[in-house]
Amino acid sequence: MSARPSLGTEARNVAVVAVLFALAPLAVLGSSYYESVLAHLLLIALLAVALNIVFGHTDQLFLFVGGLAGVGAYGTALLADALSVSAWVTLPVAALVCGLIGLLVSYVAAKRKFTVVLISILTLNLQLVFSEVFVGARDLTGGSTGFPYEYFELGVVADALGVGEKLVLYYLVLLLLVATLGVYLRLVHSKYGVAFDAIREDEIAAESIGIDVVRYKTIAGFVAAFLIGLVGAFFARESGYILPGGFTFLAVDVVVLIVLVVGGLRTTLGPIVGAIIVVGIEEFLSSAQSLQSWQSAIFGALLIVLFLYFRRGVVRSVRDALDDAGLVGEREGGGGGGGTDADGGR
Amino acid sequence: MVAASTLLGVAVDGLAFGVFLALLGVGITLVFGLGEVLNLAIGTFAVMAVLVATVVVESGMGLVVAGVAALVAVAAFGLVVDRTILSLVYRSEGEERILLGIFTTLGLTVFLDGVLINYFPSRYTLPLNVGTVSVGGATLTGGSLIIITVGAVVLAILFGFLRGTFLGKATRTVFQDERGARLVGVNPRRIRTLIFVLSAAVAGLGGLVFAAGSAVAVANGFQFTTFALIISIVGGVRSLVGAVTAGVLLGLVNQFANFFVGSYIATIILFVTAIVVLLARPEAIS
What we know:
The structure holds 2 protein chains of 2 kinds. Chain A is an all-alpha fold.
């Protein structure tokens, strides 16, 4: 079982990251393009945090992150239009629906003792159903042409502060990320974290010492799916337009998986580090004209190599390197060793 | 009221689509049953066959030559994948191998799609140009009839190979009991290679069959993979007979749903069927 750095250290790290991101827009002052990139980066990181909770900590491989995010985004918008209320009101409702979907999937899967492969196939199929509905329910979703996504009135704040709406959105998302990481830290440094570890290590043993496996897996599924739904709505708001193509498996899940693995499963900062690296590569590839058409090929190759050779992730590798150099006092427990840590126990 | 002859036409087209599904399902079932690797790149293999065949046809060769060349090319590519990526995947065991298999073949899909889209940006089709056949007042698509025949023959040969030959028996031994197979002198790794190459070719044939009726784009690869997954789930992941039955059945269901309620609902029916089966009897796949 891998011990984590203490809560204090981790909270301090999160605070440092939060300050850096709070200052980041200053470096790209006024460029709404880079503000977009930064916001996008944080949103991807948020999705990776969600996947980390459910996949990293409880071994439930959710392959419908894109689909759930879509449900959150479409749900918020369609509900707001149908009821003629602000999207701020419908956002929690849509996220709750996503959470309940995650809860249901986790509950059924845990009750029926689904293996990680079964859950992944089940959620992948759900993802495809969602995708079909987004494209097919043309009257509601506008089909493959989508519709402008101008919800969440930010203008009031933007005017009051005298900054652009993009920047307001960015700080809002940053706030969400910090809050989420706070919840995450509380979660893994509580009895929940202990239970998650025990379940991942050996489910039957965990059950035998009185851990309610179904309950903990269900909670993880709910929290992750709720978060994904919430982020989905901001995802659409950030791009200003909603399209089914933005919420497909290949567009979202693959990227989030790479981010999580590159950064490091079951680490607090892994999703952020991974998002910086992956979005960085993405930006580099799309800015280099000659490489643009090869972007997806390079991504695929990256995914293969990472999973074959680099499942420990950057955060853990760096931490170990610093450790060996004697730069940090705290040691990670013995369980982190070996290159095959990423998939967790069985 | 729909005329019986129309329904017969739909049924034949459904059977042809079922053959396509069955081939894909068999391709994924063979590899998973034997090596616990869920080949999520299988749909892209099918697309590759279509692309190779298109290139050969455009260079002036006949359709049959193109088809054979495509199958050989995809089989060769399957061999390369087996020797490189899968060799690394087979190093791990149990659930870890399954996960690694999912991730690496997923990466392979993204990689191949990304490469192929650069060279094949549009949609490709391999028209059989055989017109229609009239049977007892019903107008049947000639292409569908050819597809059903070719599919039936290939599947029969495949079953004959697995049942009748020594290599086939060795394969089935590994299927059932890997250690036992090793004890009687069968090298499971060799068999796995053989089966992976075979599955690539079968999937390639599936692609060709599909392209005989409809246009195929690079982006269809992942969609084909999901079809293959559905078929193997519904058929029970380790059963070839199940895969074929599920393929034919769902092909018919899909075509009739297509006819009566439209293609969008028909696709959803396919996915929901898979989910229901998965929930009803998960032991079939785990």
